[in-house]
Amino acid sequence: INFKNAAVPQTFPDMFAFNTAVMGMSAHNWMNEILSSFDAIVTNTANSYRLQEECDVVSLRLAKFNGTMNFGDYKSVMLASLRSLCKDWGSTHEVAWSWLWINIERLLKAMLGRPRKLESALDQFLQALTDEQVDGIRREIYSRFFAVAPAGQDHFKQSTTRLHFIADKVVSMTMDMYKDPKKLVADISALGLRH
Fold first, then answer.
1. Which among 179, 62, 176 is positioned nearest to 111, based on CA atoms?
2. Rounded Cα distance, 143 and 138, in Å
3. pTM to 2 decimals?
4. Distance in angstroms (rounded) separating the CA atoms of residues 128 and 133
5. Buried-most residue among 7, 53, 92, 140 (CB within 10 A)?
C-alpha cells in the first residue's frame, strides 16, 4: 500500500480503516460489523439496556462469519485510531476506552455461537405451531403491547384480518432478525421514520 500521497484520515471510521491496513488486519472483515455499529454502541453506553441491544444485533451479524474472531485485535485498532484522532490523548482516555471495550467484548463473547442455535430452535418452534397456538400468540402480542403502551390502542382500530397480518409480520421478523439482521434493522428504522 502506498501511503505517501494519502491524506491523514480525520474521522474514526476512516482512521480505523487506515490502521486496520497498517496493522495488517485488513482480512478481518468481521471488524467492519462492529465498526458499523460502534457509534450507536458508544452513544448508548450510559443506557445498559440499549447497549445490550446494540451488542446483541452485532452478535447476530458476527454469527454470519466463520473462523476465529480475536476481539483484542479490534481493541488494538480502536485504541490506535482514537490515539491518532485525539490531540490531548492521555492515560484517562486510555483507561476509559479500554473499560468500554472490556464491557462490549464481554457482551459480544456471551453471545458467541448462540445465534445459530437460537435461529434453529426458533425455526423449529415456529414450524411446529398449530393454528390455535398462532391465534394465541397474536392475542398475546397485543395484550402485552397494550399493557406496556396503552396509548397504542388508539392506533390499532383496524379489522381483525389487518391486526392478524401485523402480528404475523412481528413473528416473521423474529426469524428475519437471525437470517439477515442488517437488513431487518434497516427496514425497521425506515418504518419508524415513515410513521
1. 62
2. 9
3. 0.79
4. 9
5. 53
- Tens digit of each residue's pLDDT (9 = 90 or more) over 130-139: 999 999 999 8
| ∠ CA 151-156-157, rounded to 5° | 115
Half-sphere exposure of 184 (CA within 13 A, CB side): 17
CA distance 187 to 120: 23
What span, in angstroms and rounded, lies between the C-alpha atoms of 34 and 50? Answer: 15
| Alpha carbon distance 186, 190 (integer Å) | 6
Which three cell numbers mark 11? Answer: 474521522
Rounded CA-CA distance 19/41 in Å is 20
Angle 50-53-54 from CA coordinates, rounded to 5°:
90
Q: Please check whether residue 12 is in contact with residue 19, taking contact to mean a CB–CB distance below 8 angstroms.
A: no
Are 33 and 58 within 8 A, CB to CB? yes
The total number of residues shown for the chain amounts to 195
Residues 57-70: pLDDT tens digits?
A: 999 999 999 888 99
The single-letter DSSP state of residue 11 is S
The pLDDT tens digits for 88-106 are 999 999 999 999 999 999 9
- CB burial of residue 49 (10 Å; 0-12, 13-18, 19+): exposed
Residue for grid cell 492515560: 91
Q: Angle 52-55-57 (CA atoms, 0-180°, nearest 5)?
A: 110
Q: What is the pLDDT of residue 17?
A: 95
